[in-house]
């Protein structure tokens, strides 16, 4: 079972390398080690250590239970609040309870979905996982929240959008089950960002115009130069901090990052479909969890998406969903078509995908692990415009032990107006998968 973390590994690796305080370095390394262990272990449904909570709560409405790991690492921990129980004196427990409730309410009230599986699945959370754990994750059966390292990250239960994001990984797991690699993995992440943001907007009663469109807006500690982990409104502008680097997300296919790290850049390239949804929601106006949310939800749950869907596949599926829901000549179809065109996934004719350009630099094999993460963060540190949704820069030039050969574009397809050193990402149906 794939474990989904809100903070990508390359960001923690960067912090672990650059932190001056040895105690902080140890916390980041420990967080990474925990994440690696959870990625390798079976899900709770296959573990002997996950005794089921004996739920005797109501059959209608949300069914929630919050456990306390008491700064240990055994899951799920001790039950401290179940459905219908009064608030406790522990703010973190109450925030986890409220965040799962807000996410349930958004899916139920907007899309008629009863919990993650559509059949009233118990929403189980564990708080106070380990000491200084700088992450939160969905492990296939439950949410797990760290308290943060105390320097960069605070309590991960503070952001409803973080809870909504991780629980939506569960919805995807029970529906399209998108493979967590390349473009399908970036779609998996983007769908969680979209519905995580919608959970917060629905809870606050915000319109698309009033929303902040941020993921993780409340988890940074004071002193961090950033507003969140990601921005759907302006990918690439969420943070710019000497310790974190600069947000590397692209908003357009021209900035698509080809990499083997982060499962093919799933937390980076998700900025492209994220921004497409934002554009649809803003074009339609009103509440984003209305027509725009319905189009994305119907696409996710249609049963028509391949597990290895590309951006083009998903874009065309959203067009089909919009046409089914609202009609071929509807403003909803027009908004969806325009949005995917603006982010470079589709051409002006929405029925056709954008044609890939010849890359000026031959594809090179890149190492996985920390070396690749260094290159990702180098890209993140390069100056970006903050005025409009930016196009993050490509990777820095190859290191001496990885020389790049000069480009040899095919004369039959080369564009004479395109400089030889300009990189064009692939936008074919194969994507980066």
Automatic annotation (TrEMBL):
CDD domains: M4_TLP. Residues 35-83, 345-433 are annotated as: Disordered. Residues 347-358, 404-420 have a biased composition (Low complexity). Residues 75-173 form the Peptidase M4 domain. It holds the Pfam family Peptidase_M4_C. Residues 389-403 have a biased composition (Pro residues). Its main location: secreted. SUPFAM superfamilies: Metalloproteases ('zincins'), catalytic domain (SSF55486). InterPro entries: Metalloprotease_M4, Peptidase_M4, Peptidase_M4/M1_CTD_sf, Peptidase_M4_C_domain, Peptidase_M4_domain. Its cofactor is Zn(2+). Gene3D superfamilies: 3.10.170.10, Neutral Protease Domain 2. Its EC number is 3.4.24.-. It is an enzyme of class 3 (hydrolase). It is found in: Secreted. Keywords: Hydrolase, Metal-binding, Metalloprotease, Protease, Secreted, Zinc. Residues 176-345 form the Peptidase M4 C-terminal domain. Belongs to the peptidase M4 family. This is Neutral metalloproteinase. The lineage of its organism: Bacteria, Bacillati, Actinomycetota, Actinomycetes, Propionibacteriales.
